[in-house]
Specification:
- The structure is a single chain.
- The chain is an alpha/beta fold.
- Helices cover 32% and strands 29% of the residues.
- It is built from 14 helices and 17 strands.
- A ten-stranded mixed beta sheet has the order 3-2-1-4-5-10-9-6-7-8, sandwiched between helices.
- It is globular, with a radius of gyration of 24 Å.
Length: 457
């Protein structure tokens, strides 16, 4: 039985782009699609007991999300078998649980901060860093997402994941009827170059030849089954992440390998994969290979040697630092996801919200009358936004304390509607804007102690 391609959907623009990409991929491969929506929002944004509201239930919203995605997939690939699944749980948990029954996981890319398409959403990052099946994060311009470039790029690294990644990349190139470009970055350490060697080039040539031989080794292990694929190679003296980023501008898909250590915890991504998922100009496939080898083995793309030990050193000497008001505002940026702590007649509640920073400096969010988030009106509340990288145990947290006031006047509400980057994740039937006017703004950052290891991220 062929395993389906699993697509995470949440109604966002990024997830719909993932559905489009997955539908085309399923049509090429002949595999079925399974659309999964998971959410815990009903636990936070349910109406308060005893209050009458016409807010649609979370179940109705979830059904609308998957129905829209299903209709879109059918329209783009009418011959593909599509099924749907709605789960009331954490999205990362639900998607990782789907791994044993998935040939590949396909996710959208969602940005934070002023550049929406640059940074990766937390769900996609967590799944790509932990899943033990290939994960494709769909990003980039329509030309790249639509396979118009006619090229698949393979990042050839040193890890045991390179063979699995090469096999995946060759299969993708064959399905698309396009060429495969195998890219290997190499560098000659500066301390090994003497003036004479700079003239003769013997030492640098040795490193270039080593890179060439490694590409031969990886491709030779897998290309017998894909002899009909045209394979090009490119050896570049430079950093792996910069080399691959430049190649993604004219690629339909970038394929990189990842090592999954059975005993490891947290995110299992090297710095090259991490950079590609956040900044690549085309969809990125992370293809894992489980490995019990020691941490001292070579890492990805020839540059991650000792990454795990560097992460350990980075996390072993944490240090708290207080943030200035200016730093806090910079971290809040223009929008994002945070939490509001409010007192309700049922007791204290902490509610996730999609927020925007308004022109007057207030932190505004949209909700519906009768919800816990709406109970903040005319009360002093605490708003918090944070970001934590559990791979290296560092991050930041910003707290805003102030009075929350309902935004009155059609013009003011329309202005916030226009400024909003997304509709509320809990459903789009939320027209009540509340603005928190900061009386105090504080923040802390945790990271490596000054003078400690700078790390490899």
């Amino acid at each position: 039985m062929e395993l389906p391609m699993v697509v995470g959907v949440d109604g966002s623009e990024g997830s719909l782009e993932a559905v489009d990409w997955a539908a085309a991929e399923a049509a090429r491969s002949g595999l079925p699609l399974r659309l999964v929506h998971a959410s815990l929002w009903e636990h936070y944004e349910a109406p308060l007991t005893g209050l009458d509201t016409d807010r649609p239930s979370e179940r109705i919203f979830a059904e609308n999300v998957v129905a829209t995605a299903e209709e879109r997939a059918h329209r783009l690939a009418p011959d593909v078998k599509v099924s749907t699944d709605i789960q009331a749980e954490d999205p990362v948990t639900a998607l990782l649980r789907a791994v044993p029954d998935a040939s590949v996981l396909i996710l959208g890319s969602r940005g934070r901060g002023p550049v929406k398409t640059m940074l990766l959403g937390s769900v996609s990052l967590a799944v790509a860093a932990r899943a033990r099946c290939p994960v494709v994060v769909v990003r980039g311009q329509e030309t790249n997402r639509g396979s118009a470039c006619r090229r698949v790029v393979l990042g050839v690294g040193n890890s045991t994941g390179s063979t699995a990644a090469a096999r995946f990349a060759l299969r993708e190139a064959r399905l698309r009827g396009c060429e495969l470009l195998a890219v290997r970055a190499w560098r000659c350490p500066a301390y090994e170059i003497t003036p004479c060697q700079m003239i003769g080039g013997d030492q640098t040539e040795a490193y270039r030849q080593e890179a060439d031989e490694y590409v031969d080794q990886i491709l030779g292990a897998v290309d017998a089954d894909h002899s009909d694929v045209v394979v090009q190679r490119k050896l570049v003296q430079g950093t792996a992440h910069q080399t691959l980023l430049e190649e993604t501008a004219s690629a339909d898909l970038l394929v990189v390998g990842a090592k999954r250590r059975h005993a490891a915890v947290g995110l299992q991504l090297g710095r090259v994969d991490h950079a590609m998922l956040h900044h690549a100009a085309c969809p990125v496939a992370v293809v894992p290979a489980t490995d019990r080898a020691a941490d001292g083995e070579a890492g990805e793309a020839g540059e991650d040697r000792g990454t795990v030990s560097a992460m350990t050193n980075l996390a072993s000497e944490p240090e708290f630092a207080m943030l200035s008001t200016a730093e806090c505002r910079a971290l809040l940026s223009t929008h994002g996801v945070g939490r509001v702590a409010v007192n309700t007649h049922n007791g204290p509640a902490v509610v996730p919200v999609n927020y925007v920073v308004a022109g007057d400096g207030s932190v505004a969010y949209r909700t519906a009358p009768g919800t816990a988030a709406a109970a903040a009106a005319e009360h002093e509340v605490v708003f918090e936004a944070d970001h934590v990288d559990d791979a290296v145990r560092q991050g930041w947290s910003v707290n805003v304390v102030g009075i929350a006031r309902a935004v009155t006047g059609d013009a003011a509400a329309r202005g916030l509607d226009q400024q909003a980057y997304t509709t509320p994740w809990a459903g789009d039937s939320r027209r009540l804007w509340l603005a928190i006017f900061p009386a105090r703004m504080t923040g802390r950052r945790i990271g490596p102690a000054r003078g400690g290891q700078p790390g490899s991220i």
